[in-house]
Write a structure and sequence with these properties.
It contains 9 helices and 7 strands, in the order E-H-E-H-E-H-E-H-E-H-H-E-H-H-H-E. With 267 residues, it is of the alpha/beta class. Helix 1 runs parallel beside helix 2, helix 3 packs parallel to helix 4 and helix 4 packs parallel to helix 6. The chain is globular and about 50 Å long.
Length: 267
């Protein structure tokens, strides 16, 4: 059954945890219809739990929420999910590419990474970003008009600019996301703006969840090195992602660092 078309609809990949979930939450709280893309049972549970919480605080949120399970590394699934969301809500105004994976490997350990690691990470982080933009592109263009543009925001990383991060392969995949962002900004103009954000280490992210001891050490170093002397949280990144969609009318092709000033100390 097709829902009554809402005022605005955003499709968020990787919306079961971390920045993706925080971003989906931010849009839902602002009254947008939200498609939560999830990959597995744990993320499906995370998304549905959050929707239930939002529904208790603001009845009607659940009716504006759709959970779709799918792998952004699979182009057929990307096209299917984009079409399902468009059919359900009747329009697509924004796409947030927040799905991402990594392999943990010290950047000095060149033998610790395989070609398979690179292929796996690129398939989700880089190719998945491109495939979702392509799948949602016609619907985003259709929604634009009257002087208003639709928006894509890609979740990149500080490591995509400066290297480092959870692994060399991860940083390389995010550098590629930055290049994809700039190319898409040209290809999808003037109806669609395309930008990327590059957070440094954040709390409640995959490093925090999967390697808590490493997170503690990295967070201490970041606090020591950054002018703002802090580590961000997903909700703060989500606020910028939201603003890039509802504001920033002249911004496209931008690669925005959200790192508490860490880039000022980069060597």
């Amino acid at each position: 059954m097709t829902a009554t078309p809402p005022l605005h609809h955003v499709f968020v990949t990787g919306a079961g945890s971390g920045i993706g979930l925080a971003t989906a939450t931010r849009f839902a709280q602002a009254g947008w219809a939200v498609t939560f893309n999830v990959f597995d049972d744990a993320n499906d549970h995370g998304a549905r739990t959050r929707i239930a919480e939002l529904e208790r605080a603001a009845p009607g949120t659940a009716a504006r929420s759709l959970v779709l399970r799918g792998d952004v590394a699979d182009d057929a699934q990307c096209r299917s999910m984009a079409a399902q969301a468009q059919q359900h809500f009747g329009r697509t105004d924004a796409l947030i590419n927040a799905a991402g994976i990594t392999v943990f490997c010290d950047e000095n350990d060149l033998e610790g990474l395989s070609a398979a690691d690179f292929h796996k990470i690129y398939a989700v982080n880089t190719i998945g970003t491109f495939q979702m933009a392509r799948a949602c592109g016609p619907f985003l263009r259709q929604a634009a008009g009257g002087g208003l543009t639709s928006s894509i925001v890609n979740l990149s990383s500080y490591a995509g600019i400066h290297g480092g991060g959870s692994s060399l392969a991860y940083g390389a995949s995010k550098a590629a996301v930055n290049a994809v962002t700039m190319s898409l900004a040209r290809a999808m103009a003037p109806q669609v703006r395309v930008n990327a954000v590059c957070p440094a280490l954040i709390a409640e992210g995959f490093v925090h969840r999967l390697q808590p001891e490493s997170f503690t050490q990295r967070a201490a170093r970041q606090v020591e090195r950054t002018p703002l002397q802090r580590v961000g949280v997903p909700a703060e990144i989500a606020e910028t992602l939201y603003w890039l969609c509802v504001g920033a009318p002249l911004m496209t092709g931008e690669i925005i660092q959200l790192d508490a000033g860490l880039h000022l100390q980069a060597r």
